[in-house]
Amino acid sequence: MSIFLKLFKYISWNLFDSSSIDDYFTELRQTMYGKIDKVPSEDIMRADVDHPASEFAQKFQVMCPVLGSDINYDPPPFSAGSDSAMVMLYVPFTGEKRCLPVIRT
Question: How many domains does the chain have?
Answer without folding.
Answer: 1
